Amino acid sequence: MNQKELGELRRRLRPEKCSVKCVYGCYVNSKKEVVSYLEQPIGRMGEDEADKYLGLLKKTMSGTLGKNLVDVVFSTEQVMDSDEYRLLSALRESELKSGEIREEFYRKIIDALDMGDVNYLILLTYDAYDVPVRGRDGGNRPEESDTVYRYILCCVCPVKDGKTELGYFAGENEFHSCAPEQIVSAPELGFLYPAFDDRAANIYNVLYYNRKDLHQEFIDAVFHTEPPMSAEEQREAFESALTESLEDACRLEVVQALHEQLREKIEAHRESKDPDPLSITAVDVAGILENQGISPEQAEAFQSACAERFGENAALNPDNLIDSRRFEVKAGDITVSVDPVCSYLVETREIDGVKYLLIPAGNDVEVNGLPVSVNGGTE
Question: What's the predicted TM-score (pTM) here?
Answer without folding.
Answer: 0.80
